[in-house]
Amino acid sequence: MSEILSVGIDIGTSTTSMVVSRFEIENTASCFSVPRVAIVEQEIIYRSDIYLTPLVDGIKIDIDQVQKILEKEYQKAGITPSMIQTGAVIITGESARKENAALVTQTLSQLAGDFVVATAGPDLESIIAAKGAGAQQYSEEYNCTVANLDIGGGTTNIAVFHCGELVSKGCYDIGGRLIKLDGERRITYISPRMQVIAQDCKVQLKVGDRIQEDDIHILTKRMAQVLTQAMALEPQDSLCQTMQTAGSSPLQLEQPAPNISFSGGVADYIYHAGGDLYRYGDIGVFLADAIRGSDLYIRSKVLPAKETIRATVVGAGSYTTTLSGSTITYSREEVFPIKNVPAFVLETRVEEALAAGDPRPLEEATAWFLQQNQTENLLFCLTHTKNPSYGQLCNLAQGLAKTGEIYIPANRPILVLTEHDFAKSLGQAMKRLVAPGRDLICIDSVRARPGDYLDMGKPLMGGMAIPVVVKTLIFG
User: Measured between alpha carbons, how far is 73 from 17 in angstroms, rounded to an integer?
Assistant: First the structure.
């Protein structure tokens, strides 16, 4: 048994924080089997203070200040970069839209080795936060539907899981720092999206004016109503549709989710009422009160969240699995190693359409995923197909090959993971369909989830096995 240390860093619209986790890993296979290394114990050993995300002129993330914060927290945690084996740097919310967000991720990833680095789009943030709050795990454990609302400073990210599977996601420009106030309750900042809500409510807002508490109640009650409508508890009006975050998927619910949880900075005050309403110089506590009094809260079973403000990332873990060469396909050994490829887990409808011979949903979903993750490559993950017929196998191969050729640069390999044991057949079928010389890798028997990143090492045992590292966000 051995130990590894992991660091998770979250730079959000309002706050920045860091978590250090310790993982114990060991070979769980018998001495007569191919090694199978897994996390057997995990523990969060350090949680940083929560800092307001430093900005320059309200436009750019202050890279130097963020780095100083993290270096200070490294010292307090008693760790150095050389001690860290894995980790995650995630930029979320409105911070992900700051013009220097990509530079921040690159700079901070240098603090510790091969970090998972992601500037999370609104949908990806919804998924990550829901995992952090424990919504996915609860849905899987109790075979039910759970929606998590991650309410931060600028946005509310929503993800809905049924029996552990993601069924819908979306994002709305509803957050606790759409208005900022000084110590005298004068307005210092108004988000353009807040002005849309104010206009709907016929409330006048102006920077420099002292805000009226009655107006805050009117605005936050309307914001809570937008979320209530988004969750299908009331018919949607035009404001609800207008407040959908640009670039997010439309939240599609046939009926309200019976169970909900909350995460993000506002969540603490939904779960724990009381105290000074103005203590953070924004409207976040007012928004929490409004949600608690809305049908969204009253008509749902509200689950406790494992994490609230730290839900987006509380650590990154690794487990390694070696795969039998009899079930994998790869074009050449020189393409390895491959690091930090995001797992693109196909939704049920997408995978079923693909197996039936319709690749269009896959093409649309692939374009969305690449845009959300701001990446050039991905790992197509098939989790639902178990024993495809010959016709279904051909349809899968044709759709994956076509989509890969369209969306994946020619100098990058097309990567496919099947949870069940048919990667070799699929890979052989795809080989005939991709461009000559195009690198192709198909592996199986590994389970990847949305938000995971994968590394693939050089083949072992004369090419009979590939070590695969799944870097997965560890929560709770």
Answer: 9
Structure tokens at 75: 């010292």
> At residue 50, what are phi and psi to the nearest 5 degrees?
-95, 125
Least confident among 326-330, 349-353, 409-413: 326-330
- Nearest-angstrom CA–CA distance, 252 and 230: 9
Amino acid at 266: V
Q: What percent of the chain has pLDDT over 70?
A: 82
In 10 A of CB 391, how many CB atoms? 11
| Phi/psi of residue 103, nearest 5 degrees | -65, -35
Cα dist. 63→66, 105, 396 in Å? 5, 9, 44
Q: With CA atoms as reference, report the closest residue to 196 among 180, 215, 219, 216.
A: 219
* Bond from prior residue into 235 cis (ω within 30 degrees of 0): no
Q: Cβ-count burial of 246 within 10 angstroms (0-12 exposed, 13-18 middle, 19+ buried)?
A: exposed
Question: Which H or E element spans position 64?
Answer: helix 63-77
pLDDT per residue as tens digits for the range 197-218: 999 999 999 999 999 999 999 9
How far is the C-alpha of 128 from the C-alpha of 117, rounded, in Å? 13
Backbone angles phi, psi at 211, to 5 degrees: -80, 145
C-beta of residue 341 within 8 angstroms of C-beta of residue 416: no
The pair of structure tokens assigned to 31 is 């001495």
Rg (CA), the chain: 23
Please, which pLDDT band fits residue 158 given cuts at 50, 70 and 90?
A: very high
- CA 114: distance to chain centroid? 19
Rounded to 5 degrees, what are φ and ψ at 160? Answer: -120, 130
Q: Is 461 left (phi over 0), alpha (psi -120 to 50) or beta?
A: left
Residues in the chain: 476
Would you state the pLDDT for residue 319?
A: 41
From CA 476, how far away is CA 467, in angstroms rounded? Answer: 27
Lookup: tokens for 459: 């083949």
Planar angle of CA 112, 127, 249, nearest 5 degrees? 125
How much is the pLDDT for 312? 55
Measured from the Cβ of residue 164, the count of other Cβ atoms closer than 10 Å reads 17
Largest CA distance in the chain: 74
> Residue 455 in contact with residue 468, Cβ under 8 Å?
yes
Cα 379 to Cα 42, 98, 408, 456, 459: the distances in Å are 26, 27, 10, 11, 18
Nearest to residue 229, comparing CAs of 152, 170, 288, 312?
170
pLDDT band with cut points at 50, 70 and 90 for residue 320:
very low
Q: Of 187, 184, 222, 173, which Cα lies nearest the Cα of 201?
A: 222
Give bridge partners of residue 61 from the DSSP assignment: 55
* Per-residue pLDDT at 456: 80
